[in-house]
Design brief:
Elements: H1 6-23, H2 30-39, H3 48-56, H4 60-68, H5 84-102
Helix pairs in contact: 1-2, 1-3, 2-3
Length: 121
Amino acid sequence: MDSFTKEQKDEMATSFAILALYDGGAEISSEKVNELLEVTGNTEVEAFYPIIFSNFLSDPAKVAELLCTPGGGGGGGGAAGAGGGEEAAEEEEEEKVEEEEMDIGGGGMAMFGGDEGGGDY
């Protein structure tokens, strides 16, 4: 715990307070979080942490979702398996078709009157 910053300790204490309230089936509110922090001796927690955390996690379904959903930043998607080259080739072909459809240069209608030279300007 000594290696954590004050902010990390505040976040951890608030998170544990919310988990305790959730586990006990109690209402999750900033008042209840502050009461639990006070009782556990975490009186140095910045006042905005219980407010932010309880606003976001006031619904027990949201807490359950966070507990049950795997998370983490993790790295990229890893290398493509067998057959990945076929998908890439299809995507490249689709891109070429889209580029051809998008190419309006040359024989298309001139947006500003073309190259006639006269005109108003």
